[in-house]
Automatic annotation (TrEMBL), chain B:
This is Amino acid ABC transporter permease. Pfam families: BPD_transp_1. One of its GO terms (cellular component) is ATP-binding cassette (ABC) transporter complex. The chain crosses the membrane at residues 55-78, 129-149, 156-174, 186-207, 219-243, 263-284, 305-323, 405-423, 435-457. Belongs to the binding-protein-dependent transport system permease family. HisMQ subfamily. It comes from Sagittula salina. NCBIfam families: HEQRo_perm_3TM. One of its GO terms (molecular function) is transmembrane transporter activity. It is a multi-pass membrane protein. Residues 260-456 form the ABC transmembrane type-1 domain. GO terms for biological process: amino acid transport. InterPro entries: AA_ABC_transptr_permease_3TM, ArtM/GltK/GlnP/TcyL/YhdX-like, MetI-like, MetI-like_sf. Keywords: Cell membrane, Membrane, Transmembrane, Transmembrane helix, Transport.
Amino acid sequence: MQMTDTTPPNMTISDEKAIEISQMNKWYGSFHVLRDINLTVYRGERIVICGPSGSGKSTMIRCINALEEHQDGTIVVDGTRLTSDLKNIDKIRSEVGMCFQHFNLFPHLTILENCTLAPIWVRKVPKKEAVETAMHYLEKVKIPDQANKYPGQLSGGQQQRVAIARSLCMKPRVMLFDEPTSALDPEMIKEVLDTMIELAEEGMTMLCVTHEMGFARQVANRVIFMDRGQIVEQNEPEAFFNNPQSDRTKLFLSQILGH
Amino acid sequence: MIDRPVEYPAVDHEVAYLRTEEAPTLQPPGSEIGFRGWLWRNIFASMADYTSAPAAVMSLFMTAITLFTGYAIVWMAWTLLDFTVFSATFTAAEGLKRDACLPNPGACWPFIEAKWYQFMYGFYPPEDVWRVNVCFAVLAAGIGWLIFGPSHRGKVAAFMLFGYPVLAYVLLNGMPVEDNGDLGHIFSGVWFPAIVAAVLFAGWWLADAGRLGDVGSAFAPVLLMGVIVVAIFAVLPLVTMAIDLALGTEVVETNKWGGLTVTLVVAIAGIVVSLPMGMLLALGRRSSAPIIKWSSIIFIEVVRGIPLISVLFFASAMLPYFLEPGVDFNKLLRAMIGVMLFASAYMAEVIRGGLQAMPKGQYEGGMSLGLSYWQQMRLIIMPQALTTVIPGIVNTFIGLFKDTTLVLIISIFDLLGILMATLKDPEWATPTTAYTGYLTIALIYWIFCFGMSRYSVHMERKLDRSHH
């Protein structure tokens, strides 16, 4: 699996900083969940974040679009610094797409309405144009024929692909994935991963919290290992998997890869 | 990864198996389907087992229970039928009144016929009663449209919520526009609502263009409704003046209102106000801003902690002591405000239950797309939360509808109050007059409450998105 051979032309990384987190700390009450996080993501990077449960990886990416509040340090997304100002928060959220473990589709709206809601209300896009955009992205995730169904009528894999399309309709510059395949049956994981791979090949900047190590090897340009609220190790996938440095990383890899 | 060896016991029978042909799909056994199946499952399943002595005793016991309940049902149905039909008096010759009913032991229907007008309208002047009828007709048409209407349901619902109360007020009460034919009064009544409508329209125009921020854009439709309502207020004096000049309508004081009219006015006012108020209070109670949170909690807990009847009594008996002599505050309005506040507090808790049931992911889904708080509430959270608690909402509505009878304590003659007043009429005093009256009133209440219940079932089915 040589990155140089498989890299499509779009998957290039620029010098432009998409996200810059520096000296970020977060507490839940008196519990210090995120400790001294420093991370710079360049445009076009595909980063996979792994680590044992409770290590703070979800919390970290949820800080990026302010679903979680951080108490110390700075986060800059696309040049906008995240403060408690609601205007900044809404701006960042509309630039950053997010997919969740449990999809979080709106069950009372059709697939199409799920995809057009935010463009119409946040971006003030005319309805007709929003529908066209939504159909374009639904075709991309290969479910245009389900557009008028409700989320409850779709399989888990289809729902997660709709969630991806829904985020893409906002034309985000960064996509965050929070364990997108963890709630799926094994047969459905592949269809979601394929969609994500396609997205990566088009040059989307992505941060994925996932346990899919095959995906990490194939798509990521950087793998980050977190434990006990800290970034313990990061490296290119080849080096990360074949030659882990810290004992904690070695233990983690032996546990998830060792069946 | 297992570090100790495990010895599984050996199996000495054949374990390998391979299906070679598809198993056929069969009909269920006869005891499960059709009329025979129904009879077996519902009637005979518990009383047809004679395979052992204890089972036989149990079956005989069940047979006895079945026979007894069957007898009880037939007996009750027969008694009711006898009272309402076979032993009842249906017609009374002119001027006969109670003497027509006295010979028969059953219901005295001529009493209902004679008092029907009062049951419906109280002491509303007969020459103006068409106004009440128009109100009822518009209400029935609106509700019918909401249930069966082919399209534009949202617009009809908006009219019924915002426009109809105004229309009903103008029709039932009349607008005081005919003051000695002084047209100045009419136009002084027009300019204020017209200015308010213009301001609201400007607000809507800005909000719709996104210039008032997210709160503005979320509430743009509400502002537009406001424009329509106030505009109706501005135009209606002119309309009523036209009606007035054409037909000679007058203001009908609320103390002449009564019967079903008052019941519906109080109940509908409570329903229409309590739903949006309840939503705001429920959101307020969950707010992270302490002032909003605590004022919501205090309002809800105080109002819920006091019996409605004591508030109505206070408003009726005690309020005059606190007011200047000669200051009169419309009694019906007082009762309506009391009912609205009560219903809002109860509704808030029902809706809060629905909000509590919303998974956190729905908020996060909305947030991650950049929707503002009010957009999340209006587009994502409320539609789902309200659907979840439809049974609770309708329960509150039904309770409210029946609680309106409490206004009789402050001598407002609602449906029940008017019945009790008419029962005092000595010309209709017979042993069965009261039973006939209460039976009729109960039936009217039941029809409305059952209607609401069916409507709630209909809405639940319609809004069900689970598809399982």
